[in-house]
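User: Could you check the structure of this?
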Amino acid sequence: MKLRPYQQKAVELIYTYFAHSTGNPVLEAPTAAGKSVIQAEFVKGVLEQWPDQRILALCHVKELVEQNYQKMRLAWPRGSIGINAASLKRRDTRESVIFASIQSVYKIAHELGRFDLIMIDECHLVPTDGAGMYRKFIDDCRKYNPKIKVIGFSATPYRMNNGLLIEGEDRIFTDLIPAKAAGMSIDDLLAQGYLSPLTTAPVRTALDISAVPIRGGEYVAKDLAAAVDVDSVTQRACDEIVAHGRDRDAWLIFASSIEHAHHIAAYLNDLWINTKVVTGETPEAERAAIISAYRMGSIKALVNVNVLTTGFDAPHTDLLACLRPTMSASLYVQMMGRGMRVHPGKSDCLVLDFANLIATHGPVNNVTPPRRKIKGEERMAPIKECGKCLMLIHASARECMYCGEAFNFDTAPNITGKASTLDVLASKAPVKIEPTEMAFSIHSKAGKPDSLRVDYYSGPLRIATEWVCLFHEGIAQARARQWWQQHVGTAMVSNIEEAVEVAQIQAQLPAYLYIQNEGKYERIVSRGFSHAA
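Assistant: Sure, the predicted structure tokens are below.
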């Protein structure tokens, strides 16, 4: 397999993390970034260097088990690779790498033997409170190897009401490798043409959920279904879907309940739109046949209830109709991701937001992770990202411990307006600039190791600044070492003074930078080098 540049960068960040940290990281990777490719390349590299290692790759649906297994086979054709998933009728137990569904293995750790590493795809499904199948299985595996490591992969590394997966006393994951660090945020992938953009159109039909109660941070399912599944509302929404979708090839519709889904399908079929329904109650063989027909184009519209949000890949989908309100930012991002894969002849994907999702959560490339509720404390976000140097810090910090940036604590205005008129993607088009010079200096911050400040210039104008934290810990150091390898390529230095001296002499100037304006900050989205230099 030939990796995309950001995929190779992600693999390198994982290696760097484990070279300098002892925790369990989560790699954030948007839908369509190619998590299965990243996992396969990382595993292949591990086993080439340490062939006695055993690795288990877990996920929750058979489609992902099979997909990840196939990518591993491409990366390592002669490798010792197995599958343990009842739904795939495979129960392998002794291979070096095993791809498994958590439902099939969570009670049989003793049959699988010792593992050195567990990878969990779609790890936002792992509870942070110490309960569930994943936690039971990992605890059992630690009986055979107390030093076992865990890596998570997710486009949405947070859970509703619990915040980021790296928060909380009972958390499995300890550190986040953000998508930005590898140059694979949604904005990065859109700029590089690896994602299809989303667009919206005004809709007149609105779902009235003002009286629906919320329990555990989400709408109560029974009450939501009663409020949303109203014949006149469903018919008006379907009429709008048909009007907007005449020139669209494949419609994916999110419904609020099984009955709601069948009512939507019945009305669309009455309008001569070939429509099918997939729910958790759909028999496995029938579900596979329906999804196959949708992918082949013989089914125009596919209505689903909570089953086609993760692990579902139909790149030709060019219309998303949302009739399923949710308070879950993760579910919202996952739903939007179903329309963001690229496909020949597809220029964008139209989102019809009847459920007010965009107003609730914001543009999909600018979603704020949910805040963790801390007992006895006022509800607040435990951590935040510095807009200047992109490091993750505690939300209460008055200034960034890495770059010294002071924070504005003014309350942000609430998002207002109807979902039907809001943009599903925030406009953040990066600009390509060719720098002419780099300048290096020491940045000092009390109580923290010094960092390398890098200023980029185009003529007399400073166009961007980076803080390279070579002597910090965790992901900050991982990102810094990657920067050093890209720009300098020599062995690591032992102190910040030497770093400045070596960088001034040997650092290679990028041929270009893609710079994205984020308010008063400029962020380097990606960069390229002249190999002839």
